[in-house]
């Protein structure tokens, strides 16, 4: 029976960072439209520290989150590549160490 390959922890972190990026991007794009519609309907929304921070720092948050996503993507791919190279090396060593086997 073959051994299961361990999970890549960077992949989970990449998924979480991507989810945070999507939520921030949607909030940055949708919240101002909702505020505008509420104001046009005659009921301006009450002041909110979250909306103010999103308005002032939203693009910066998106860039930071994009950088974190890129970092976790590179780390995830690097770990997968290192594991596959280790597996290939181990398989090659096993073939060479068997008695009566021919090396290519």
Question: What keyword list fits this structure?
Answer:
mainly alpha, rod-shaped, 104 residues
Biggest sheet, open or closed, and with what strands and sense? none
Class from secondary-structure proportions: mainly alpha
Helix content: over 70%
What low-confidence regions span 5 or more consecutive residues with pLDDT below 50? none
Global mean pLDDT: 90
List the domain count as a whole number.
Answer: 1
Quick one: how many beta strands?
0
What is the strand content? under 5%
Shape: rod-shaped
Reading the helices and strands in chain order gives: HH
State the end-to-end distance. 27 Å
Please state the CA-atom Rg, rounded to the nearest Å.
Answer: 25 Å
In short:
The protein is mostly helical and 104 residues long. It has two helices and no strands. Helix content is 78%, strand content 0%.
Notes on the protein architecture:
The chain is mostly helical and 104 residues long. The chain has one domain (9-95). The protein is built from two helices and no strands. The longest helix has 49 residues, at 49-97. It is rod-shaped and about 85 Å long. The two termini are 27 Å apart.
């Amino acid at each position: 029976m073959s051994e299961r390959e361990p999970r890549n922890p960077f992949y989970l972190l990449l998924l979480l960072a991507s989810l945070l990026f999507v939520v921030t991007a949607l909030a940055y794009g949708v919240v101002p439209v909702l505020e505008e519609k509420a104001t046009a309907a005659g009921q301006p929304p009450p002041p909110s520290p979250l909306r103010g921070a999103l308005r002032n720092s939203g693009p910066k948050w998106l860039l930071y989150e994009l950088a974190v996503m890129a970092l976790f993507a590179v780390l995830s791919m690097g770990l997968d590549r290192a594991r596959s190279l280790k597996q290939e090396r181990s398989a090659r060593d096993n073939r060479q160490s068997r008695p009566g086997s021919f090396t290519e």
